[in-house]
Amino acid sequence: MPRVPFTDLAAMASDVWPSIERDYLAHLFGGGYIGGTVVTSFEERWAAYCGTQHAVGVASGTDALQLTLAALGIGPPDEVVVPANTFIATAAAVANVGAVPRFADVSDGTLLITPGTLAEAITPRTRAVIVVHLFGQVPDMAGLCAVADDAGILVIEDAAQAHGAEWAGHRAGSFGEVGCFSFYPGKNLGAFGDAGAVVTSRPELADRVRTLANHGRSRGSSHYQHEAIGINSRLDALQAIVLSGKLAHLDAWTSRRIELATRYRELLRGTEVRLTGVASSARHVYHLFAVRVAGREEVRAELARRGIQTGVHYPMPCHRQPALQRFADRPLPVAERAARELLSLPVFPHMTDGQVDFVCEALSDVLRGAPAHGELIDVQ
Q1: Is the pTM higher than 0.90?
Q2: What is the model's pLDDT at position 369?
Q3: In whole angstroms, what is the distance from residue 8 CA to residue 185 CA?
Q4: Strand pairing of 154-158 and 166-167?
Q5: DSSP E strands: which ranges in the chain?
Q6: Integer Cα distance of 20 and 23 in angstroms
Q7: Do the Cβ atoms of 356 and 263 come closer than 8 Å?
Q8: For residues 341-380, b (16+ Cβ closer than 10 Å) or e, as one string?
Q9: Residue partners of 175: CB distance under 8 A and separation at least 6
Q10: pLDDT in tens, 242-259
Q11: Is the dihedral of CA 352, 263, 339, 326 positive or negative?
Q12: Which of 75, 222, 284, 297 could form a disulfide with 137 if both were Cys (CB 3.0 to 4.6 A apart)?
């Protein structure tokens, strides 16, 4: 067991289990697995939390993106602008509906797409942009939406890492046509398995996503009447129970993540670690605490030797992925350079101040080339 794990899902499960045990076991042994009031209740609560009128629970964040693109009628020969430094699902969803991902570079400070990099990527074939709220921070949505409006393109938010994040007081998912969320277990709001949601204030779009996610059945139609070619991508009742229970803890967990990130920033200021910038209008919820270091792989190995788990998000930008290289048409220097330097440090709600101190001391030592200090200290 590492001295400092990258995350602690068991601790979050322990927090929420007492409040959900009764409902969870009742549905588990009662056979109520698909749909029902618990799913509807979570959808309503999640829409309200995001500041939108509707939420549709689906099976994953990847499905949320692909269903959204299909519901908006995006396909061949459309282009969709996507920042290059994102998980492959963002770009793959575009390719899977037959459209072309058009890769954009990002800010060297925040590593988020900017109005300028969006404008550079737009062509006459561009139908939409997927704005990725990477690491837990919403980019300049006012500026991005203005560029999109001028170009006549749709704004889709990939908020898979940004549950409760804000720009100028407005929640992630409430800016564009639609917001797409993942509830993968490691997310700030995570299920006990895969799950996702689409949020929007356009009722017809919510209905279209719901139809496509349920084998093309429209609401109120016969079980065997299919208005469209859809897929099977439904949020199940057990995951909805878990998510409703965890939603009650989300704000407290987010506050703790922000406290931990503030401590990291204070302790790493003045070191060789390059911190990711935070815009003044942003409320960063720190799904990840990503920094940039030289010699990343050697640093990771030494931290692991000292009992500290880390991650890399992401070691290869999307336009360099073998599956997506055919869509790359130009170098994207910021995303390419950052991919060689990014290092995600542990950050999770049950992490202690002592663990943050231990990570910062170890990281500073490693970057200075200092040896480990004998016995590792108790960081509880």
Answers
A1: yes
A2: 86
A3: 10
A4: unpaired
A5: 54-58, 79-83, 100-104, 126-132, 154-158, 166-167, 170-171, 178-182, 196-200, 274-275, 282-283, 289-292, 342-345
A6: 6
A7: yes
A8: bbbbbbbbbbbeeebbebbbbbbbbbbeeeeeeeeeeebe
A9: 131, 138, 141, 145, 155, 157, 167
A10: 999 999 999 999 999 999
A11: positive
A12: 284
C-beta of residue 180 within 8 angstroms of C-beta of residue 30: no
Domains of the chain in sequence order:
9-244 (3.40.640.10), 250-368 (3.90.1150.10)
**pLDDT by residue (tens digit) across 7-66?**
999 999 999 999 999 999 999 999 999 999 999 999 999 999 999 999 999 999 999 999
Radius of gyration of the chain (CA): 21
Residues in the chain: 380
Instruction: Tell me 372's DSSP state.
Output: P
For residue 270, the number of C-alpha atoms closer than 13 Å in the C-beta half-sphere is 3
Report the pLDDT value the prediction gives residue 219, as an integer from 0 to 100: 80
Using the predicted structure, report yes or no on whether residue 374 has a pLDDT greater than 60. no
How far apart are the C-alpha atoms of 128 and 108, rounded to whole Å?
23
Query: What token pair was written down for 255?
Result: 């506050």
CB of 71 within 8 A of CB of 186? no
C-alpha to C-alpha distance for 206 and 180, rounded to whole angstroms: 12
Name the E strands within 49-123: 54-58, 79-83, 100-104
CB 109 within 8 A of CB 140: no
Provide the CA 63 distance to its chain's centre, in angstroms.
Answer: 13
Q: Is the dihedral of CA 55, 58, 62, 68 positive or negative?
A: negative
Beta bridge pairs of residue 129: 81, 155
How far is CA 72 from each of CA 78, 104, 113, 154, 272, rounded to the nearest angstrom?
12, 21, 22, 9, 45
Residue 138, CA distances (Å) to 175, 280, 286, 288 in order: 10, 11, 11, 13
Q: 158 vs 137, 189, 212, 275, CA distance in Å?
A: 11, 15, 19, 23
The sign of the CA dihedral 155, 157, 158, 161 is positive
Instruction: Work out the pLDDT band at 220, boundaries 50, 70, 90.
Output: confident
E strand residue ranges, 188-317: 196-200, 274-275, 282-283, 289-292
CA 145 to chain centre: 20
pLDDT at 223 over 90: no
